[in-house]
Amino acid sequence: KAKKKKSGKTVVVQEEKEERVESDSTEQDVFSHVSSACDFRSVPFGIEPSALMALLNTDRSPAVAHEDSSKYTYMIEEAGVRFSVLFFFNTSERLYRYDILGDLFAADSINTAVRTQARLLKKAMVRQAGKPIKTSMIGLFDLKKEQLSPMAWWQCDGNRAWVGIIREDNRYRARTTVMASEKVVSPGVGLPVRAKWITKEEQ
Q: 152 pairs with which residues across the strands?
């Protein structure tokens, strides 16, 4: 009986040790990356999927991995409206981008539901990263298929953020896209927006 009890303790101690090692590894991964005002909550760019899951996973709203494990989805709420957050990992399994997605609507809802959700996303980014470095009015004919048409731009310690509207097939949605600096982004990854990024001379 004593041996069984000792064996049981050994198993528990081993499990606790493994949990501490995993927790220490996650903390080291998080704290080894510089945070910026454009980060999603407390999630810095450059972390691995396991660190993302540890930071975001709660019983209320867990992060869900996609089949290819290069994307993870999370749900948030802003002013009573639910948005999906999509996290992207490069081939080195490092977080380099996240999108916050509004609902898809038909064209007749662009000036109502879509723009309302875009304004909510813009307000959220202003609270997070401050005043945008540039804003723009988006007309119906500015909306190109599968390309974000920005209404506001930000730059945070090399990271870049846009809030705007995107057309997906014949439907439209508000979207925030935040990209890590070139130190984290995979080579060859293009900017997911229609307008080019603003150079320092243009700011």
A: 135, 163
